[in-house]
Amino acid sequence: MSFPKQSEVELPLLKTLLELGGKAEPKELYSKLATIFPQLTQEDLTARMPSNP
User: Fold this and answer.
1) Cβ neighbour number for residue 44 with a 10 Å cutoff
2) Half-sphere exposure in the Cβ direction for 23 (13 Å, CA)
3) CB 53 within 8 A of CB 16
């Protein structure tokens, strides 16, 4: 699965923030944005970026 590009996420993210009163914690945004991108699988939604030491 390929994740949406930043340019594809920007407008939905801003609209969602507006709906939530202009500010929100990331955990509030994730589930709302996931509904906008139904191609994301459950595995995609739980994936984490590798971290460097």
Assistant:
1) 13
2) 0
3) no
pTM over 0.90: no
- Please tell me the distance from the alpha carbon of residue 33 to that of residue 41, in angstroms, as a whole number: 13
H helices of the chain, in order, are 6-19, 26-36, 42-46
Residue with tokens 């944005």: 33
**pLDDT tens series, the chain, 53 aa:** 578 899 999 999 999 999 999 999 988 998 898 899 988 888 888 888 787 66
Instruction: Report yes or no: 4 and 37 within 8 Å, Cβ to Cβ.
Output: yes
Contact 3, 33 (CB under 8 A): no
